[in-house]
Structures are given as structure tokens and as C-alpha cells.
Amino acid sequence: GTNTARLAELVAAFPETRFAALVEDPAVAERLNRTFAKCGLQLDVLVDIDTGMHRTGIAPDRRAVELYRQVNSLPALRPRGLHFYDGQNHMPSPQERSRAVEQICQKIQQLLAAIRGAGFDVQELVCGGTPTFPMFADVSIEGYAGALECSPGTCVLSDANYAQAFPDLGDFQFAALLLTRVISKQHAGQVTLDLGNKAVAADPPLDRRVFLPRLPDARILGHNEEHMIVQSAAADNLDLGDTLIAIPGHVCPTVALHECFQLVEGGRITDQWPITARRRDYRLAGNVEASC
After folding, report:
1. At 26, which CATH number?
2. Do 149 and 71 contact (CB within 8 A), yes or no?
3. Does a structural domain hold residue 222?
4. How many whole angstroms separate alpha carbon 174 and alpha carbon 269?
């Protein structure tokens, strides 16, 4: 993006950490180069390739080759390779996902040949998301000697929707659980929990926002800022104040709603990890050209 000054400030502040940026636009590459050159720094860069999701990235054609050529010509940038994400490939069938990955790899192979034909080296290929990482981990791309770097994310903590949709990914344990409490019980077969959309992500469909192991037949009737209304045959067995464990349907944005993880071992809270990436009070960089 346009905030190259902040990135340069981070690189200067943490010299032992490797930073890299994705680039899809020639103007951004030029801006990165100007900022980092004035600071006396260099930055690793990967060209971002659009595999068909049409969210970010440049098409894997001659424009991508020209962008790679441009990055190679800029002294403050170190061209490292390609990044290609395929968030559109979330088909339930592993065979369908495998075929989609094969098609992507064919295009990347052709692009690699064109880049190398232009006289440039590609040292890294960073690819895929969670649903296709086993497929990418099992393929090789002709002309590329290195290992593909897969980038799954959801399976680190796992969530209910991916566990249901992609059982082929393996038996990942749910590591991020929510503790909720019954706060109202006025109707037969129904309870209200303090599990509103300030506590759990509301982007999945209503019936896939959480899974409640103690209420496997639970049907979510409503979901508001502070409350979740649940219908279940077992609801009448619950009392006000009873606690339930909830498994998020979509764990990634759910994590961003909370200040910290409470680590539980043997039924006891043993530590606390702050979720620093959710903070909004980033310190804005000033004039990096002047500060460098």
C-alpha cells in the first residue's frame, strides 16, 4: 500500500527480524524503493499473483514478468519470488481441490519459465491457504528446486466450520474455546447466552457461528451484540448461571474480538497471552526520509 514509511520504520527498529512485502503494482514498487533507499535499507519483495480469486494480485502473464523485471531493477528491493493465494478453492472434495491446485501450479510453472527466460531467479514460492495446504505440500513445480512454502492459518487454532467442511485436513484439536453463561431462561427449550457478536464472529451464517458440545442439537434463533438465543432439547436442564463451552465457527475474526488468550492446563488457568495484533493504537510513523 501507500504507507511505506511505517514499514521502513519497523525494518529499522527490528534489524534481527526478516520483513518482506507483497507487490502487485509498479507504482507501489517504486514507492517502496524510494522510501527504503533514502533510509539506507533493503526490503525483500514477492510479487503477488492472482490465481482466480480476484481479490489481490497481478495476473500470471507478461505483466507479472515485467513487474518482476522492475523489482529486479530497483536497488533497495530484493526480489525473492512469488506469492499466490487461492482462497477461492474451498470445495469439500479433496479431489476437486487437488485438481484446482494442479491448474494453479501449471500457470505458476509457465510464469516461472518466463521469468527465468528473462534472466531472473525465483528463490521462494509462498502458496495456498488452509483448505489446499496438503495439496500444495504434495506437489512439485518443474524448474523450481526449492520447497513450496505453504501458508495455512486456521488450523493453528482450528474452528468448527473448517473441521466440518474439511475432515481430510486431519484431526486438529480445537485450541481456542469460548466460555459462555446462561443469563436468561424464560421459554421452554430455550436459553439466552452472553455470547453476542462482540464475543464471537458473526460473519458465518447464523446456524454456523458456534458449536456447543453440551447442546449438540442447538439451533441459534438470534444473535445480537450481547446475546445469543439458543433452542435445544437440553435447554430445560440448564440453570441460570450455568457455563458452556463454545467452539467458534470462524476463529480468525473471533480472536480479534478479545484482549488475550487464557491458557488452560489441567483445568486451571496457567498463563495469559495478549493478542497484540488486534490493537488499533499503532504509532504512526513520521517523516521517515527525515528520521532516516
Report:
1. 3.20.20.10
2. no
3. yes
4. 17
